[in-house]
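Suppose you are handed a protein chain with no further information: no name, no annotation, nothing but its sequence. What can you learn? This example shows the usual starting point.
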Amino acid sequence: MRLRDGEAVGLCDGAGSWRLGRLERAGPARRARLEPDGEIQVEPAPEPALTLAVALPKGDRGDWAVQKLTELGVDAVVVLDAARSVLRWDGERSARGRARLERIVRQAAMQARLTRLPTVAGPLTVAEVVGTHGSAAAVAEPGGGAAPDIAHPVVLIGPEGGWDEGEVPQHIHRVGLGPTVLRTETAAVLAAGVLTLRRAGLLG
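A reasonable first move is to predict its three-dimensional structure. Written in structure tokens, the prediction is:
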């Protein structure tokens, strides 16, 4: 609504391809249309792909986390079904929940001018995520040691009640997120921020 005739608009397919367009208003009703202006550009997918598997809290806090993970540039968000998760998805609730998160992802991607949309998956258990990603996976926990690194680009963030006894395999890599105990959404955003900065070569 704020754009004027002739202004440039970025057009993107959500899979890495984009081009510029220009707004034109035509006819008595001044209907708006976008005319292509320039060649299609293709941005390669960044490597490695970054995945945050998060035991999302209910309501606005979970939505906020997904929004910020998208803005930071993660490639996939997995809703983690941990033993102590507060948010439970099943049946129709699962489909509705994913659809809502996918809308949040699209809106956040436009805000951040991303050319690729992160995927939304789940709910998956810890065992399912670790089984899929193997040694690439790491679990965040207090006192977990070093900060997240791109050698383990899949980070699992548990619920605020913590991990259940025996829920996390003993062999999985552990990472730490500082000396304080964080809310789930704060931990997820911090882990994603460290990973995206390291992938971009901006953090040692």
